[in-house]
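Hi R.,

As promised on Friday, here is the backbone we talked about, encoded as structure tokens. Could you run it through your design pipeline when you get a chance and send me back a sequence?
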């Protein structure tokens, strides 16, 4: 019997079990155990991909949870903790003579044994295995071959962002210039793009799209995610869903409106003035520090008007983004509805009005339907939700 599950497959580790940094820009509270508790108890996410699981200390923490009978390895891959399944992932920075990167990619492995082998191999290709998103010395295809040798999943990460992505660097026009497309299992869209935007590039029609948070703090978990049809949350089932095997698939993608992404429009990073694509000097302040927007880059690459039939992409934001929803109100919602997913997806307007003011309850339901008014972001600054006042 197939059911639906929510999954966010790009979450960083801020600190390991010894309180040492893993993702330098990640919050100190973003530990493996805290991620699992937050996803299971507050967010209501059924599957998470922790993409710093290659770090030896992170693997130690997982093993300790298993020894303490707080977690268990699943026969079909993944680690079960309470109501959430952890997939063991790694984000890697590729920079070789072909990709002219840096380009970030995600790899996921079914077992602790497999990612342990991967970490051992990475120590021969990477200077600091203990940190997140480190530079890999080798070709992208060599990395793909190793991931597949270890029965892994390979996904190019946030493919349109202006920095450290396949298309966003502005160097490449095709995946085939860097990767073996037959060894790609899905494409991560990133915060500043959506299905309709990405499908303007014909070669992407061959791949399933995933939408993930790239969370650097506990609060950012599930700011983007997907609903997946599976028998249960496990590595095998998620892999099947990426390839539409035996009825497994992505049901819906949930993400912020691309205009909320911090790289949607082309802007001057000095004064944040919106400027024309590939402008050399800002007409407002004269700065040469121009950050090209995702929207403009996709228009440059677009080569088809035919859209592939895909799951719906629904615009949502985490509850913390909503104006007038403070921490006390957020806690009231959790006390009543248990998880953020329940608030966002299942609580009726009348039920919400019993807990929060009517105006805020209406905003939550409008968010559910993708009807919030927004101001576009760019140049590293997020867009914003219009005030409810």
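Update: got your reply. Pasting your designed sequence below so it's all in one thread:
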């Amino acid at each position: 019997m197939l059911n639906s599950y929510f999954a966010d497959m790009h979450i960083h580790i801020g600190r390991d079990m010894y309180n040492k940094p893993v993702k330098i820009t990640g919050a100190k509270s973003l530990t493996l155990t805290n991620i699992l508790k937050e996803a299971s108890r507050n967010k209501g996410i059924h599957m998470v991909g922790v993409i710093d699981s290659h770090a030896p200390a992170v693997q130690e923490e997982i093993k300790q949870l298993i020894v303490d009978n707080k977690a268990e390895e699943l026969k079909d891959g993944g680690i079960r903790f309470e109501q959430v399944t952890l997939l063991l992932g790694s984000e890697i920075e590729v920079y070789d003579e072909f990709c002219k990167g840096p380009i970030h990619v995600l790899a996921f492995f079914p077992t602790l044994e497999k990612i342990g082998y991967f970490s051992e191999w990475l120590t021969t290709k990477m200077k600091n295995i203990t940190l997140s998103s480190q530079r890999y010395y080798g070709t992208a295809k060599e990395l793909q071959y190793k991931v597949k040798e270890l029965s892994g999943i390979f996904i190019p990460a946030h493919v349109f962002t202006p920095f450290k992505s396949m298309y966003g660097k502005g160097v490449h026009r095709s995946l085939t210039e860097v990767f073996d497309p037959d060894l790609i299992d899905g494409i991560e869209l990133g915060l500043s793009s959506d299905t309709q935007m990405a499908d303007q590039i014909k070669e992407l029609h061959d791949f399933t799209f995933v939408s993930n948070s790239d969370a650097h703090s506990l609060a950012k978990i599930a700011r983007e995610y997907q609903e997946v049809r599976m028998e249960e949350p496990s590595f095998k089932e998620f892999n099947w869903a990426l390839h539409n095997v035996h009825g497994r698939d992505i049901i819906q993608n949930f993400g912020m409106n691309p205009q909320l992404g911090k790289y949607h429009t082309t802007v001057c990073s000095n004064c944040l003035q919106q400027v024309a694509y590939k402008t050399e000097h800002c007409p407002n302040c004269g700065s040469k520090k121009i950050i090209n927007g995702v929207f403009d880059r996709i228009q440059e690459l677009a080569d088809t008007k035919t859209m592939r039939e895909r799951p719906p992409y629904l615009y949502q934001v985490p509850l913390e983004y909503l104006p007038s929803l403070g921490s006390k109100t957020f806690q009231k919602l959790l006390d009543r509805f248990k998880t953020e997913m329940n608030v966002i997806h299942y609580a009726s307007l009348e039920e919400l009005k019993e807990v929060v003011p009517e105006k805020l309850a209406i905003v939550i339901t409008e968010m559910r339907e993708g009807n919030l008014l927004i101001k576009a972001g760019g140049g590293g600054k997020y867009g914003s939700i219009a005030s409810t006042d």
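One thing I noticed while checking it: Residues 32-43 form the longest helix (12 residues).

Thanks again,
M.
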